[in-house]
Every structure is written in C-alpha cells, then in structure tokens.
Design brief:
Blueprint (H helix, E strand, L loop, with lengths): L6 H8 L22 H12 L4 H12 L1 H23 L10 E3 L7 H13 L7 E12 L1 H5 L8 E7 L7 E4 L4 H29 L5 H22 L3 E9 H8 L4 E6 L9 E3 L5
Parallel strand pairs: 1-7
Antiparallel strand pairs: 2-5, 2-6, 3-4, 3-5
Length: 279
C-alpha cells in the first residue's frame, strides 16, 4: 500500500538544503492607519519645534486663538508706531523738555541778578521774540497785575502767585488774569483753613511739652502767616512774559521790576519752569 502524497515532504526531497521555514516571511509589515493631510502637517510641525513640549503647546494655543493673537500683535504695532511718531514730531502743544529759568539753589542772588541783567542788556534793540521770567521787587495784587503797563509787544503769559510760605505757582495770564489770581487765592485759603483746623485739633490732643507739640505749633504759625498774606491779597510775586527783546529790556527799567530773566532762544512759555530771584 503506497503512502499518501505529501506535498511538503516532496518539496524537502527536491531541495534538501531548504526548509519550509525559509519560505515564510521574516516579518510582516503592518500598514499604518491613514491620517488626514492636515493632521500630518500639524504633527510634523510640532516635531520640528523643540520636539514638542512647551513650544508645541504654545503653537497649538496660538492656532486656536487667532483673533486674540491678531489683536495683540496689532496693538504692539500701533503703540510702537505712536512712540516713533511722538519722538519725531512732537506737534503743537506737546512739551518734550522743560527749561529752568532762575537762580539755582544756593546761588548768590545779588550776583545772579547782576549777571542776568547784563545778559539782557546784550540784546537791547533786538526784535526776536523771547520768553522771560519777571521777578517783582514786592508782591502785588491780582487787580494790579491786570492793570500792569507792559511795553509794546510784550504779553503776560502767566502770573506767578504764592502765599509767601509754600513754593509759588503760576496761573494763566491774558485779559482775565485778575480772575485767575482771585480764584487761586480763594482756593488756597480754603485749603489752609482746613489744614489749620486739623492742626488745632492735633495741638489740643498733644501732651505738652513734646516734640509733636512743638512741630504742630510751628506748622500752625506758618499756616497763619500764609493765610494772613492771602487775605491781604498781595500774592503776585512775578510773571512769565513773552515779547521782542527790546521790549523786555524796557520792562527791566520799570522800578517795580527786580529782574527780567531771559529764557534761551526758541523756548516757549509752556516749557519754562520758573525760579524767582527772591530770598
């Protein structure tokens, strides 16, 4: 009886040096799942940036917040353009720098006044429009500054007012300078009256003698002196003026004027920080 035909055995007999296992594939390549092109691009881009991590997360956030990102970038561009514009073209009314006109702290006032008067004399006859800080020999009232006779072409830009105790301030000049001075006087007086009430209460509550009691007493005396001047009305110590150089020289010749202190050429009144030639 013959053996049944076995194909595997027949193959081994025909090629004794090869086994059936040689015919089987070493590995089978499993195809990757299909991905959309958009996902593939996003994955590749994320891998290129630092291997993912924080950069990939940030990039994904930007991609999902396009409107917010656009607004932020547009704001940065506008602010940068505005900064460049302001630095190149200040435009009318914009103040890029302040020029101090007046004696420096500690300066000998008599020597300063003499020096600045000589500088003013050097421009006698000149027609160039200049700005100057005027110091009066003694304080005057608001109505008096409104009636002040100025040389031809010279204009009152600001009146310099003070209570004689705190640092002086300036109010706008013009046709209604006396109203501006009076408004400042009344407001300042109201402030000091409120301050005086507080000092009175503090003095009553402070033990005597004590450093606090002494300090409150000195402050009360200063406030009283300031209120007395405000009630008297002589609170205009000087002015900021503008006009032709020769007109400013004529203003210096007024007996009520101590000094007409010229600002540098080209300086406008709103750029001036004043210091009066007073002790």
């Amino acid at each position: 009886m013959s053996e049944p035909d076995d194909p595997l055995k027949r193959l081994e007999q025909a090629e004794p040096h090869r086994s059936v296992s040689d015919e089987l594939p070493i590995s089978v390549k499993v195809p990757e799942p299909r991905r959309s092109k958009a996902r593939a691009r996003m994955a590749a881009t994320a891998e290129e940036r630092d291997g993912g991590g924080v950069a990939a997360t940030l990039w994904a956030w930007v991609g999902s917040h396009k409107v917010e990102t656009g607004v932020f970038l547009a704001t940065i561009v506008l602010l940068t353009a505005l900064a460049i514009y302001l630095s190149v073209d200040p435009g009318p009314g914009r103040v890029l720098s302040v020029v101090v006109v007046g004696p420096p702290p500690g300066q000998d006032l008599q020597a300063y006044v003499e020096t600045r008067r000589r500088a003013l004399e050097d421009v006698a006859g000149g027609r160039e429009i200049r700005v100057a800080v005027v110091t009066f020999r003694s304080a005057i009232t608001g109505p008096r500054i409104a009636e002040y006779s100025l040389p031809a072409g010279v204009e009152l830009e600001e009146a310099i007012v003070g209570d004689g105790v705190t640092l002086p301030e300036s109010v706008k000049g013009g046709n209604k300078v006396d109203y501006a001075v009076e408004e400042w006087r009344l407001h300042r007086l109201q402030v000091l009256e409120t301050q005086r009430k507080g000092l009175t209460a503090a003095l009553a509550a402070s033990p005597s003698p004590s450093p606090a009691k002494e300090w409150y007493t000195n402050e009360a005396a200063a406030v009283d002196a300031a209120m007395a001047r405000l009630r008297d009305g002589n609170i205009v110590f000087g002015a900021i003026v503008s006009g032709p150089e020769d007109g400013l020289v004529q203003l210096q010749q007024n007996s009520a004027v101590l000094l007409v202190d010229l600002a540098p050429v080209g300086v406008r009144a709103e750029n001036v920080s004043f210091r009066l030639a007073l002790g």
